[in-house]
C-alpha cells in the first residue's frame, strides 16, 4: 500500500475521476509532445463520455492544453477493456499523427496507463489488508496510529497538516457563501450557510446533526462550484470526512494534532480500499465513493472518541456495510443531485457508527476486508446504467423533468 497521505489530493472540483484525473493526464501528455503540433484530438470513452460535460471533463482538459486547439470525440457507448474511464490523446501535425497515448482515470484523481493501481509503486506498507495490519498490531500490542507513524516518512505529518488546512478552508468558505445557485441547469441552491444558522437555533442532537450536515454540505458545495477541496477519497465524497472532523474540532475541543492523527487513521482505511478494490464511481458505483468516505470518517471519529483498534475497525466496517449497493446516478451528469446531500447524510452516519462502535467491546463478525470484498463484487454486478453514466436511477427519472 502507498502512504496514507496518498488518498488525499488537493485540487479543484467537481470530480476526481472526470476532471482531476483528465487534467493530470492532459498535463502529462503535454510533456510528451515535441515538434510542430497543430491539433490535439481527445477521445473519451464510457463513463467519461457519458457524464463528462456535466463533470467539466472537456473544460479541465482544455485548460491544461491551452497552447493547442483541442477537438473532443465523445464515445459513451464504446469501452476500452481495462477501465470504465478511458481516454486516448492524439497529437497531429496537419494530417500526420505524431503521438497517441491511452490512459485511464482510475478514481481519486489517479491515472494509470494500465487501468489499475500499480501495487509495486511507492510502497510504504508491506501489507494491503486491514486484517493483516490488525494482526500485526495485535502481536506487537501497537495502536494503529503508532503503526502508521512507524511506517511513514519524516515529511508525512507536514503533508497531513497541509491537507487539514485545505479541508478547514473549504468548510469555512462554503459556510460563507450566499444561497446562490450552483453552476449548471439544475439551479441547485447552496444550503450550507442556511443549515449552519438553523443549527444554532437548536440545542442537543438536532443542533449537532445540523452542524455536521452544514460542514459536509459546505465542502460538497465548494466542490460542485469548482472550489478547492481535498479528495477523501474522491471529489464527489469530499465533504464527509472534513464534515466530521470540523464538527469535532470546532465543537468538542479536538486539537489540530488530534485531527491530523485521525486523518492518518482514515487514510489507512481509504488506501486499503483503493489498493484492494476501487474508489471509482464508474467502476463500483457510489458505494466506492460515499461508502468509503463514510468508512474513513467512521474510523477517524472512533479514533477521536478514544476507540481501540478493534473499535476503530468496527466503525469503519459499519460505515461501509450500510452503503453496500449504492448506485452512482448523478442527475444531468452533475456532481450535485444526489451527491451533495449524500455527503451530509454519510457524515451523520459516520458519527453514529463511531459512537456505536466505541460503546461495544469492539468484537464483530464481519471484518472490514470482508465488506470491501463484497463492495467490489457488488460494484462489478451493478448494471452500467448505475455506474456514473447518468442513464439509470435518479438521473433517468429526472431526465425529462429538468430541462
Describe this structure in words.
With 403 residues, the chain is α+β, with helices and mostly antiparallel strands. The protein contains 16 helices and 7 strands. The chain is globular, with a radius of gyration of 21 Å.
Question: Which key features would you list for this structure?
Answer:
five-stranded mixed sheet, alpha+beta, 403 residues, two-stranded antiparallel sheet
Brief write-up:
By secondary structure, this protein is an alpha+beta fold.
Rg is 21 Å
* Order of H and E elements: EHEHHEEEEHHHHHEHHHHHHHH
Judging from the principal axes of the Cα atoms, what is the shape?
Answer: globular
Total number of strands: 7
The residue-averaged pLDDT reads 95
Q: What is the tally of helical segments?
A: 16
Query: How widely separated are the two ends?
Result: 45 Å
Strand order of the biggest β-sheet: 3-2-4-5-6
Ranges with pLDDT <50 over ≥5 residues?
none
Strand composition percent: 5-15%
Percent of residues in helices comes to 40-55%
Can you summarize the main beta sheet?
5 strands, mixed
The structural class is alpha+beta
Secondary-structure map:
Elements: E1 10-12, H1 16-32, E2 39-45, H2 46-50, H3 57-64, E3 70-75, E4 85-93, E5 96-107, E6 110-112, H4 130-140, H5 144-151, H6 156-176, H7 192-199, H8 204-224, E7 228-230, H9 240-251, H10 256-276, H11 281-284, H12 290-304, H13 309-321, H14 339-358, H15 368-381, H16 393-398
Parallel strand pairs: 2-3
Antiparallel strand pairs: 1-7, 2-4, 4-5, 5-6
Helix pairs in contact: 1-3, 6-8, 6-10, 7-8, 8-9, 8-14, 9-12, 9-14, 10-12, 12-13, 12-14, 13-14, 13-15
